[in-house]
Amino acid sequence: MKNNRLHFILKLLTISIFFALPACNKEDEKIPPVINFKEGTEFTQDSAVVKVGNKLIFGIQARGNSANITNFTIKKMLVDGTAITVMDTGLNSESLDVEKVYYQNVEEEAEWTFTVMDKNRLSSHVSRTVYKDPDSQFGGIYYYPSIVMGYQSNTGYGHFLDPFTGKVYSEDSAVFFQTDMHILVYFFEDNNLASPTFSSAGEMDNYSTEAMTFYPSITEWQTRPYTLWDISVEDDPIPAEVFDQAFNDSLLIVSYDEVWGKKKFKWATNSQVIPFKTANGKLGLVKVINAETSDSGTIEFAVKIQQ
User: Fold this and answer.
1) Do 61 and 97 touch, CB atoms closer than 8 A?
2) Strand ranges (E), 64-170
3) 74 & 113 share domain
4) Domain closes at, from 132, 157, 178
5) pLDDT band with cut points at 50, 70 and 90 for residue 116
């Protein structure tokens, strides 16, 4: 009897250990995060054929399994092997749910890859290939050869610009046309350097305070358009001739680098050409004609922007 009982106990113990071991291993197992595209006809599909300048809309959802997601990147791989990092951002979240809007460029084919990495440095990705529509035609542009704006302490010239009409507004009048105010200018000294600056009201919503400090009224606006400025031209200038030769939007499209689009452009100087992208996705170029260096001064520039 005792032997039977002992045999039963040993058998039960063996079974318990057998089931316990996988549980321990599973607990220690690190599983990569999961990422997928959102479903819907509004999103750009794999092998889509898109005309130059048209929207690319990608919906991405992801979640961590063993750890929080800490990094999200978007890369565009061209057929010649060139890899363009469109976005590389850190976070610390259990999940990710985003919709990103870009615009078809002039490349014939591009593979868009979306990657998430978790705290354990495990990653997962999804990709879609997009082709340029061979029937693409370049679009028209608006051109304003001379726009003069005043910095924050200037009372003779306005500080806000609708780049689609070339019309400049004072702070008092800009409030009535909030959705059209894609550009504002101000002057300050940064690291003891004179800094004529291009920005937008949306700067204040993106962890920056200069615009709201110089133009307090924008804190009450219901809509603050956010314009991005390509700061790569500080180290890799665009020749003035590129601006002069832009008769359609082809040069505007290839001049703007999505990776380097930032909330403002500081240290603007005479003859400098600066690419930008408005909140409604239109690309443009500014060519500085004369940038004065005091907060009561003015800045004169030319603008070309997609219609």
Assistant:
1) yes
2) 69-78, 83-93, 95-103, 109-118, 123-132, 141-150, 160-162, 167-169
3) yes
4) 132
5) very high
